[in-house]
Amino acid sequence: MKYSERVIQSVIDKNPGQPEFHQAVKEVLTSLSPVVDADPVYEKNAVLERLVEPDRQIMFKVPWLDDKGNIQVNRGFRVQFNNAIGPYKGGLRLHPSVNLSIMKFLGFEQIFKNSLTTLPIGGAKGGSDFDPKGKSDNEIFKFCVSFMTELHKYIGADVDVPAGDIGVGAREIGYLYGAYKRMTGKYEGVLTGKGLSYGGSLARKEATGYGLVYFVTEMLKTAGSSFAGKTVAVSGAGNVAIYAAEKATALGAKVVTMSDSTGWIYDKDGVDLKAIHEIKEVKRGRLAEYKNYRPSSEYHTSGKVWQVKVDIALPCATQNELDLSDAKTLVSNGVMAVGEGANMPSYPDAIDYFISKGVLFAPAKAANAGGVATSALEMSQNSQRLSWTFEEVDEKLHAIMISIFNQASSAAEKAGAKGNLVVGANIAGFLKVADAMIAQGPQY
Ligand code: NDP
Question: Range of 89's domain?
């Protein structure tokens, strides 16, 4: 058995009941095989064994008082996976599905994604099984304070810098930041995605979605194509989805679908993003309301956005939302490119199918790295006590996405897998981290 296969097997044996973590490790280690199985230095230094074991996994109780005066108890997590190239960095997710397996898959992927950004940040992830849906501002506030009461012991501007993810936007980051400041007495860049009045970066909100479109643009160029005139299916209606749709539309594409966890819309005339902004970002409502803005649109509670005939698909909601049968439907409808805005939205067999059919495929860890890259730019601004203009940040983001594409593309070519950005992104992200780990000695 090859080195990479042995490590995959040991991860499965040692971490029972963690399917998402197994899936992420298998995907990454399989594509690293041409590198790690060809050079004994990696096995000699136990690089893979050290990479698949988080530095620490913190789990804690989050008790909070709801509006009726009842005590609720949630579980909090912070998985600090690897800090070989910089302080731990990765989002906080608030969603009922959150468990250790999902935290570990996200933290593991984050190591390579952060490495690809070219910026000095390590990998981590955190969150809670708390469901923010339907909660009052007061309940969100109480949860955030309780969550930070434990989390603040483990984070810091040079230690671990969390950010937003599903269910964590500007409101939650604000409450978390206020709690951290009060508990530690420190005013420092310990969280990113902050409001502009207290250290946030312009363009952070837009960064993941815009970055995705910048990356897919580079990929489309290799086929002499662009977003102009293309029909696009977007899933999700949150932070990533909204700004991916906005940038794709600005580049001349027509976005015809969006979704949330209760249903999805099809608007043949192109989704009205002002309406989405109002429903999702202002009212925190459901997509079902979109019909009030565009009576000619369709709202569905069954099926998926992937059944619509489009040129480009951008899954931007959550993990494992695009399976093999969705991939077959998209391909039979003539899809030419898929760009992952969410983390691990496609099942492995769906990815293999796209690649086997010659569909251009942009994997999450490269394509959605714009968010964390801009978070790292927020950290730089905080350290300098400066704020850059929107254009400055957007320009840097754009350059970073082009550089990520070039790194992934050339690593794929070197590995004999020209055009396979899944392989390229994993290898390019891995090499820098592995070098740093080896250089820092066997105990890290
Ligand atoms: P948001 O919470 O802003 O939006 C998530 C969207 O996806 C919502 O429309 C939500 O619907 C929908 N959704 C979430 N879970 C499910 C589910 N289980 N089934 C169906 N729909 C679901 O999150 P983000 O936009 O920030 O994150 C989306 C994805 O992008 C995640 O995978 C995240 O890890 C990834 N990502 C985010 C980054 C960021 O900067 N925010 C950076 C890199 C990756 P509803 O409104 O009903 O909850």
Answer: 56-191
206 CB near ligand 1 (under 6 Å): no
User: Residue 6 Cα, ligand 1 centroid: separation in angstroms?
Assistant: 33
**260 Cβ closer than 6 Å to some ligand 1 atom:** yes
pLDDT of residue 137: 97
CA atoms of 232 and 211, how far apart (whole Å):
16
| Same-domain check for residues 91 and 119 | yes
6 in any annotated domain: no
Number of Cβ within 10 Å of residue 397's Cβ equals 25
CATH of the domain at 143: 3.40.50.10860
Within this chain, do residues 83 and 185 fall inside the same structural domain, yes or no? yes
Which alpha helices (DSSP H) does 156-238 contain, by range?
Answer: 170-184, 204-221
> Structural domain tally of the chain?
2
User: What is the helix, strand, coil percentage profile of the chain, to 5?
Assistant: 50, 15, 35
* pLDDT value at residue 71: 98
Could you tell me if the CB of 114 is within 6 A of ligand 1? no
Q: Which pLDDT does position 400 carry in this prediction?
A: 97
Do 239 and 335 sit in the same domain of this protein?
A: yes
Give a yes or no: residue 123 inside a domain: yes
Which atom of ligand 1 sits closest to the CA of residue 364?
Answer: 44
Residue closest by Cα to atom 42 of ligand 1 = 371
- Expressed in angstroms and rounded, the spacing between residue 80 Cα and the centre of ligand 1 is 21
Residue 13: predicted pLDDT:
98
Residues of the chain short of pLDDT 50, as ranges, are none
Domain boundary among 367, 385, 417: 367
pLDDT at 444: 80
Q: Is 370 in the pocket of ligand 1 (CB under 6 A)?
A: no
89 is catalytic: no
End-to-end CA distance of the chain: 26
Residue 244: CB within 6 Å of ligand 1?
no
Contacts of 239 (CB under 8 A, 6+ apart): 164, 169, 205, 208, 209
pLDDT number for residue 443: 81
Does 358 share its domain with 213? yes
Atom of ligand 1 nearest to the CA of 368: 43
Residues 318 and 285 in one domain: yes
Residue nearest to atom 40 of ligand 1 (CA): 371
Distance CA 52, CA 30 (A): 13
Contact (Cβ atoms closer than 8 angstroms) between residue 160 and residue 154: yes
Within a domain: residue 381?
Answer: no
Ligand 1 midpoint to CA 241 (Å): 8
Domain boundary among 160, 191, 222: 191
